[in-house]
Write a structure and sequence with these properties.
The structure is a single chain. By secondary structure, the chain is an alpha+beta fold. Strand 14 and strand 15 form a beta hairpin. The protein contains 7 helices and 17 strands. It has one domain (2-336). The radius of gyration is 20 Å and the shape is globular. Strands 2, 3, 4, 7, 10 and 11 form a 6-stranded mixed beta sheet that branches. 17% of the residues lie in helices and 29% in strands. It comes from Sphingobacterium corticis.
Length: 337
């Protein structure tokens, strides 16, 4: 593809290591802006022809698995959601790494993609293999980087029959897949396949007892509030149970997290309740942050936007407490309890 040549700008950018005081300030402001769910400069990720194929070539460090979700059963309103699992397999000295792209619909049109002129594509052009660098773990005290989720900061880009298309709304999340003993603590963004089971119902009871001041603001519900006592240290992906998808073991996870963002999407929980299968990636999920309601600022700027769901508050909380998810359409025939 012609667009692949555009990654030269990305390489040139990475070579620049020197930051003066002004650029440090700009970088700081961009980070603050990204934490609110938006970015000042888009980064385009180019989808290639290797989708849905496991390439065993030595020079291919990743493979991709894509699935389609339908929101009708979970949110009582029908929209498509498309997910792409970019999987960097486990290798010596490193666990499996997973980058999840979730394409979320435009509520007016229901579409996931929009056409874009070649001349309008600006910003950094990246390739899937470059995403591996997002997993470089910081070393040192007081410097743990918990940024694992990005909304419309990374945009998927594809070329079909000479025409270019970009994602309308794109959530990108990064996960490290671990098989660690419980005695070794893991943080936000790490999926431990060996951790003890803990359901949302069990967590809610324990959280309310330990943090009685936040009893009505659990970090798993639509009225969640940030924990000002322990902050992000309570953010975590928990393993609820395991099941089967065909002959493969499925791990049911859910995420506890919340911020005080009011005028943008709170993406801290991301895909939130989800199922992970080794070799396939995330094959079921929920996006409550997106389908609950529009943020105040976005709702005021848009006109005649349909309500994202048709659930009552009681039905919404039932979805949460029962850990309901959208299963990939491609895998529904393989489900067993």
């Amino acid at each position: 593809m012609d667009i692949l040549n555009l990654n030269r700008r990305d390489k040139a950018y990475r070579k620049s290591k020197v930051l003066n005081a002004h650029s440090i300030l700009v970088a700081f402001l961009m980070v603050v802006n990204c934490l609110c769910g938006y970015s000042q400069q888009e980064k385009y990720i180019v989808l290639t022809d290797t989708l849905d194929t496991k390439n065993e070539c030595e020079n291919q460090r990743y493979y991709v698995k894509s699935f389609t979700f339908n929101t009708k059963e979970l949110y009582r309103k029908e929209y498509p959601v498309k997910v792409y699992n970019i999987i960097f397999p486990e290798k010596e000295g490193r666990n499996e790494l997973l980058v999840l792209f979730s394409l979320l619909p435009d509520f007016k049109t229901g579409k996931l993609w929009e056409s874009v002129d070649r001349s309008d594509i600006s910003g950094d052009i990246l390739h899937l293999e470059s995403l591996e660098s997002l997993f470089l773990e910081p070393i040192g005290y007081g410097n743990y980087d918990i940024k694992r989720k990005f909304f419309n900061e990374y945009i998927l880009l594809q070329e079909i029959d000479g025409k270019y298309y970009k994602s309308k709304n794109c959530l990108m999340e990064v996960f490290s897949i671990k098989k660690s003993l419980t005695v070794f603590p893991l943080f936000y963004g790490h999926l431990n396949l060996r951790q003890d089971f803990l359901t949302i119902k069990e967590f809610s009871k324990l959280y309310g007892e330990y943090y009685p001041q936040y009893l009505g603001e659990l970090p798993i519900s639509f009225n969640a509030a940030p924990n000002y006592q322990d902050g992000w240290r309570v953010w975590k992906e928990f393993l609820s149970k395991t099941g089967k998808i065909g002959d493969k073991k499925a791990y049911h996870f859910w995420c506890a997290a919340a911020t005080n963002i009011a005028d943008a999407y709170d993406i801290s929980r991301g895909v939130e309740r989800f199922m992970y299968v080794e070799g396939l990636g995330i094959i079921a999920g929920s996006y409550d942050f997106y389908f609950r309601k529009l943020p105040h600022a976005l709702a005021e700027s848009l006109e005649n936007v349909p309500k994202p769901n048709n659930l009552t508050d009681e039905e919404w909380m039932e979805n949460v407490m029962e850990e309901k998810v959208m299963l990939a359409e491609e895998l529904k025939c393989k489900v067993s309890n």
